[in-house]
Amino acid sequence: MTLLGDCRMTRTVHRIALLFNGNKIFDRDIIAGIGEYLSSTRASWDLFLEEDFRCRLQGIERWQGHGIIADFDDPEACAALSRVSLPVVAVGGSYADAADYPGDTPYVATDNFKLVKLAYDHLIEAGLQRFACFSLPQADVNRWAQEREKAFESLMQRDGMQGEIYRGLGTSAPSWDTAVEQQIAWLQTLPKPIGIIAVTDARARQLLQACLCAGIAVPEQVALIGIDNDPLARILTRVPLSSVIQGTREMGRTAAHLLHQMLHGGRLAGTRILVPPAGINVLASSRHEAPSHPHVMQAMHFIRQYACQGIKTEQVADYVGVSRSSLEWYFRRELGRSVHDEILRFKLDVAKDMLQHKDQRSIAEIAVSCGFTSVQYMHAVFKRELGCTPREYQDRLPQAEAGPLSLN
């Protein structure tokens, strides 16, 4: 037998279950991090994965495998895996109280305090002085959301401020209209301008829709930031959503590394690793500027919703209810630029975001999506404003994205 054959005979293939919900961006990115670890090492794992890990919980203690990496934000997973004798690595949110961690199980956590603090610091840098948190109803499955509330409260107390926390209703088809009505009622009670941190991008998107329904200008009156940097949330909102980028891929790599050590005899009971956020993707929803004139505020609200539909200055003036010349005068006095410049600036920011996130659409399709009259016109705008073509801008991104991002 050849030496290569001997290596194949002696190499152990481990059967590993990944108990995650593949429908969630948080879980998908952790799974991707696990995959990155495997591709960069000599670990040989057969992975067992369902779209939703809850399909595997029943009878998991009888599963004939070698190890498990699981989402411990769900209390059912904690209970089911307490009966398992295999090596287990837990992944989930961090806790202010050490007693809330799952015993001796090695645990890799997203740092909830640092997630909220990064969002809070960003809103402070935007010049805001009032803050609120949009959370989720209290429940065992939402423990991570309640931890983010605690982080928000801690920051408010530290700075001697009174912050609003609103949980609202959970998401379901029968309660959707009622939930939006209640969100609007809450928003109308808040002092303006105000910065709001939502515990997820999905929650932020709901609140953004409520703002648009109520005619509340984002970000002039409400500056909004979520957590997750979910591409789907960006696609589904008329005003592009700012978001804190969790270090989920690093969490996945770390969890895989811990399990790899345990499979080879490592003793890691009680190990806890907190992974900080990777940065912020700053988009229109939190770019708070405080124009003092109401006509400028109304115009900005309209531009942020409809710039990518190819609107002209005349349409903005019609919406505000003033002449084009008057609106131009207000814009130059308040912002130092024309209405057309503001429309163009917004479209350019949206195009940059699509290119930065490696959007699957072609340059021509991005030009249409952003409201440019032609791909040639978008090229001309990029050359004039950034000194490069859209393709050159995209080609530069791997170097620019080597570290945490803050897209301004």
Can you put this structure into words, describing what you see?
It holds the Pfam family PBP1_XylR. Residues 297-396 form the HTH araC/xylS-type domain. Keywords: DNA-binding, Transcription, Transcription regulation. With 408 residues, the protein is of the alpha/beta class. It folds into three domains: 3-110 and 248-278, Rossmann fold (3-Layer(aba) Sandwich); 112-245 and 281-286, 3-Layer(aba) Sandwich (Rossmann fold), CATH 3.40.50; 294-395, Arc Repressor Mutant, subunit A (Orthogonal Bundle). 46% of the residues lie in helices and 13% in strands. It is built from 17 helices and twelve strands. It has helices at 3-10, 25-39, 75-81, 112-125, 143-158, 176-189, 201-214, 231-235, 248-263, 294-306, 313-320, 324-334, 339-356, 363-369, 375-386, 390-395, 397-400; strands at residues 14-19, 45-49, 67-71, 88-93, 107-110, 131-134, 164-166, 194-198, 222-227, 242-245, 272-275, 279-281. The strands form two sheets. Strands 2-1-3-4-5-11 form a six-stranded parallel β-sheet. The radius of gyration is 24 Å and the shape is globular. The protein starts with a helix and ends in an 8-residue tail after the last helix. Mean pLDDT is 88; it is low at 1-9 and 399-408.
